[in-house]
Fold these 4 entries.
Entry 1:
Amino acid sequence: MKLFVFIAIVAVAAAQDKQPRPPQHREQFRVVYEWRTVDFEWESPGDRETSLNSSRYIPQNVLISGINFYKDNIYLTLPRMLDGVPATLAYIPANQNDTAPKLKPFPSWKDNTLGDCYALQFVQNIEIDRNGIMWILDNGRVGTLTQNPDAKCPPSIVLIDLKTGENKLERYPLPADVVNPSTTYLNDLVVDNRDGDFAYITDNSAVDPGIIVFRLSDKKSWKLRDTKSMSSVPEAALFRINGTTVNLPVNVDGIAMGPQFLTEDETVDRTVYYCPLSSYHIYAINASVLRNESLGLKGEGAIRPYVVDLGTKASQTDGMKMDSTGTLFFGLIGNSTIAEWNTTVDFRTGQRTIARDPNYIQWVDRFTFDDRGNLYVVVNRLFNFVKNQVSVEEVNYRILRSYTGLKSYVFGEDLMPTKPPHAAATAPTLAASLLVFALAHLLV
Ligand SMILES: *[C@@H]1O[C@H](CO)[C@@H](O)[C@H](O)[C@H]1NC(C)=O
Ligand SMILES: *[C@@H]1O[C@H](CO)[C@@H](O)[C@H](O)[C@H]1NC(C)=O
Ligand SMILES: *[C@@H]1O[C@H](CO)[C@@H](O)[C@H](O)[C@H]1NC(C)=O
Ligand SMILES: *[C@@H]1O[C@H](CO)[C@@H](O)[C@H](O)[C@H]1NC(C)=O
Ligand SMILES: *[C@@H]1O[C@H](CO)[C@@H](O)[C@H](O)[C@H]1NC(C)=O
Ligand SMILES: *[C@@H]1O[C@H](CO)[C@@H](O)[C@H](O)[C@H]1NC(C)=O
Ligand SMILES: *[C@@H]1O[C@H](CO)[C@@H](O)[C@H](O)[C@H]1NC(C)=O
C-alpha cells in the first residue's frame, strides 16, 4: 500500500492561551499509521488461525498504549488488560509504506509467552535511555479489566540493551514489601541517567498510588506516597468524549522530567512532573527528593512539603513527554487537544494548544520523539476499550507525527556539579562518625 497521510489537524489557538505564540513554527500533526484492529506477523500462516480459534488472539482486545523509538524501529506496548493479547510488546519499522503495518513481537514470540515469568506479561509503558537501554515496566498481573485479574509474575523492571542486538531480557523483580504484586499498576516512567541510573515510576494502584524509585546501580527500590497529589479526584473522574461518557477514577499516571539545573549549593537536580489521570492539576517535585530513600520509609505525606501544585489545565491528561529543552507535551482528553508548555514559564498562563480535532484526537495516550526531531503521538480511543464498545469497523488506533526539531529529555544537556554529587549524602555519615569519635572520647 502506498503511504498516505492526512493533514488532518489544524492548529488553533485555544481560548485558554494567554501566552503569545513562540517564534518557531510548529508543523501540523499528520496521521502516519492507523489501525482498526492490531494484527501481527505470525510465526506461520496456521498460527494466526489457531490463535484465533483458541482465543489466544482476540483482535478487538488488543490496544496500542505506549510508544517509543530506537534507531529504525517504533516500539509499541499492548497491555494485557483483557484476554486475547498474544504479545504485550511489539515493534514496527519506522520507515515503511504500509499505513496499517502488522506488529512484530519484541524481542520474540517466546519472550511474550503468557504465564512464563522469564517472558513479558503486562507492559503498559517503556522508556529507552540515552545509552540505548530499554526500560520495560512489566506489571506481571494480566486481565486488569476483567473480573479476574491474575498476578502471574512479580512486577518487575526488565532491561534490554538494544545496542548489542542480542535483545536479552534482564529482569529485576520489585520486592513485595515495596510493590504489592496483587494491587500495583506500574504505569509510566522516566529515566535519569545520572549517578547510577534511576527510574521514577508512577504506580496508579487503586489502593496505594505512589511514585516508585528504582536505582539500577544497586537494584534498590522504594515508594513515595502523597494522597493529595497522587490520587484521582471525583470532579475529574468523568470523561466525555465522542458522545461517550465514562467514569474512570485513575490515580497518578503521566510523568515527565525537565532538564538538569544547578542548585544554589551547586549540585545538579531536575524537576519531575506528574499528574493523576483523573485530575485537572499538574504537580512537580525535585528528583533529589524522590531519590531520598528515607522519605520512602516514612510513608504517606513525607514528601508533601516538597510537592508543588503548578495549577490547573482545561481537561484530564494521560501521558506527557518532555523534550530536551524543557517543553512539555500533553493531551487534554475532554478537549480533543494536544498542548505544550514551556516549563520556564508559569504553567497557569504558559499552556498552548498545538492541535485540536474531535475526530482524530480521541484520547491521547503516549508520546515519543525519534532521532530526527519528530514527535509521535498514540491516540487510542481508550474510552471505547474500557466500555467494551470497540467497533472493528472503525479506526481505533492512530499514530500522529509532527516535526518539532527537538529530541527527548533523555538527550538533555549534562551539567557538571561544581560540588561532588555525594557531598549532601555523605554529610550525615561524616556527622555520625564525628559522633562516634565524641562517644569514644567519653568512653576513654
Ligand atoms: C479453526 O476453526 C475453524 C472453524 O471451527 C476450523 O474449520 C479450522 O480448521 C480451525 N483451524 C485450526 C488451525 O484449528
Ligand atoms: C515505499 O514505496 C516507494 C515508492 O513506491 C519505494 O521506492 C520504496 O522503496 C518503498 N519503501 C519501503 C520501505 O518499502
Ligand atoms: C527544586 O529545588 C530548587 C532549589 O534547588 C527550588 O528552587 C525549586 O523550587 C524546587 N522545585 C520544586 C518543584 O520543589
Ligand atoms: C475542555 O474539556 C473540559 C472537560 O474535560 C470542559 O469542561 C471544558 O469546557 C473544555 N474546554 C475547552 C476550552 O474546550
Ligand atoms: C521558553 O521560555 C524561555 C523564557 O521565556 C525562552 O527563553 C525560551 O526560548 C522558550 N523556549 C521555547 C522552546 O520557546
Ligand atoms: C465519533 O467519532 C467518529 C470517528 O471520528 C465520528 O464519525 C462520529 O461522528 C463521532 N461521534 C460523535 C457523537 O461525536
Ligand atoms: C532525606 O530526608 C531526610 C528527612 O527524612 C532529611 O533529613 C535528609 O537531609 C534528606 N537527605 C538528603 C540527602 O536530602
Entry 2:
Amino acid sequence: MSSEKTEKTDKIKITLESANLVYTWKWNITNELCSICRCELQEECIECQAEINCAASGCHIAWGCCGHAFHQHCIFRWLKRQQKCPLDMSEWSTEKIT
Ligand SMILES: [Zn+2]
Ligand SMILES: [Zn+2]
Ligand SMILES: [Zn+2]
C-alpha cells in the first residue's frame, strides 16, 4: 500500500504589466485639450462650435480637484452619466470654473 500525496501548489503569478502611460502632456498647459471633445480648452467646446449651446455666457473651463480640466459643457454632460473624472476615474468634484 502506498499512499501518494500530491501536493498541489497553485502558484498564481500576477504579472503587473507596466502601463506605458504618457505623462508628457504637461509640457504645454496652454495647449491642453479637452479629453472629452478633443478641442483645445482655450477654444470653445465642440458643442459651442457647432452652436448647439447658446454660448451667451461663454464656454468655461471646469477644473477638477484631481487637476484635470475640461470644458464646462463637456464635463457637465459626462457627469450626468457618472460622477467620475474621465481621465483617472477618481471621484469628480469641481474645484473652480474659469
Ligand atoms: Zn470639451
Ligand atoms: Zn461649450
Ligand atoms: Zn482627473
Entry 3:
Amino acid sequence: MVLTVQSTQENKTPETIIYVDSNRVKCSGENNDHPLVYYTIPEGGEAICGYCDIKFRKKDEWQK
Ligand SMILES: [Zn+2]
C-alpha cells in the first residue's frame, strides 16, 4: 500500500511525500516523466528523488 500526501504551506511549493513499507523505493515521476530510479531510505530519514523532488519516508517512522 502506498499513501500519497500532498501538503501546501505558505510561500512554499507543494510537496509530495510518499509513505512506503520498505526502505527500497523506486520513482519514475508522478506521470512516468523521468527515467526509473531506485533509492534507499536512510534509517529515520527520507529519500528525495533527484528528478522530481518527491520525498519517500518509511511508514513506521511517520506513525510514531
Ligand atoms: Zn521522481
Entry 4:
Amino acid sequence: MNPIVLTRHKDTLVEYPAAFDGEVNDNSNLTSLVGSIVGQHKVCGGRLEIGSTSEIWNAIICRSCYLRVVFPKEVDTYGKLREWFAMMIKIKDPEVRGETIDH
Ligand SMILES: [Zn+2]
C-alpha cells in the first residue's frame, strides 16, 4: 500500500506487515480494525491503532509518540482515509475541518 500522509507535519501511516494476514490496500476495511493496529508511524516507528472516540469520530493514535488524528466514522477504508487527510491538510482552520464543532 502507498503511504498515507496524515498531517501537515508529514506524519505518515505505512503498512505494518506483522499485523495483517496479507497486504492491505486502499479498499481494505478500517472499521473491522477498531481496537487494533492499522499501520506504523513512519520515521517514529510506533504502532498506529484505531479507536472509536465518539458517536461520529474515530481516531488513529500512535502508541509511541501519542500522535492522535481524528476522522469521521464514514471514512471506513484506507483509500477514504487517504482522501480525507489529503483534504484536511489543505484546510488550515480547525473550525472548518469540523474538529471544534460540538456534534
Ligand atoms: Zn509516532
